[in-house]
Amino acid sequence: MFLFVGLGNPTRDSEDNRHNIGFKIIDAINQKFSLSKQKPKFKGLLTTGIINEKKVYAIKPLTFMNNSGICIRELIEYFKINAEDIIVFHDDIDIDFGKIKAKFGGSSAGHNGIESLDKFIGKDYSRVRVGIGKPKTKADVTDHVLKDFDEEEKIELKKITTDIVDSMSILLDKKLNLFSSTVNNK
After folding, report:
1. What is the tens place of the pLDDT at every residue in 16-47?
2. C-alpha span between 23 and 33 (Å, rounded)
3. Known catalytic residues?
4. Cα separation, 30 vs 59, whole angstroms
5. Are residues 35 and 47 in contact, defined by beta-carbon separation less than 8 angstroms?
6. C-alpha–C-alpha distance, residues 182 and 52, integer Å
7. Residue 29, SS3?
8. What architecture (CATH level 2) is domain 2-184?
9. Using CA of residue 73, residue 132, residue 31, residue 186, what is the dihedral sign?
10. How is the chain split into domains, by residue range?
11. Rounded to an integer, what distance in angstroms lies between the CA atom of residue 49 and that of residue 33?
12. How far apart are CA 96 and CA 166, in angstroms?
């Protein structure tokens, strides 16, 4: 059993923000694998289904980025999901736009959604970090992550989400290094 978590903010004006790339990936997974209709449960929008003969849950927390851990703790306690079987999709300003890095555990690097997850469920989960590029100055970080993707980036974003979804079997086998190299070389 796996849990996919897409980090983002649930407001309509946040829909195309860089910070919401996790939500976009969950939507792509739901569509590609025909997961159930999204239902509001556990303070998030939850879907379920089977991918590669494995039961999966996918959720977009509605608790806002900074409180994502509240939603996830409730869900994993209810379904008895091990942290090692959680895969979180999120933006990362320290990675060039469009590059993807998967890893197990590690530091939050100042990402508020990851800090919330670490606080509520610990650090023993996998992360798929999608690069959104770095702003010119540190003072611009908040504006950068909350800024919408431009039209050119939206085209690239479709390719990114497709590459991630097409490599899902590697991710479910927990081959994180192979997953990273596969999606970055498509």
Report:
1. 999 999 999 999 999 999 999 999 999 999 99
2. 16
3. 19
4. 10
5. yes
6. 18
7. helix
8. 3-Layer(aba) Sandwich (3.40)
9. negative
10. 2-184
11. 8
12. 21
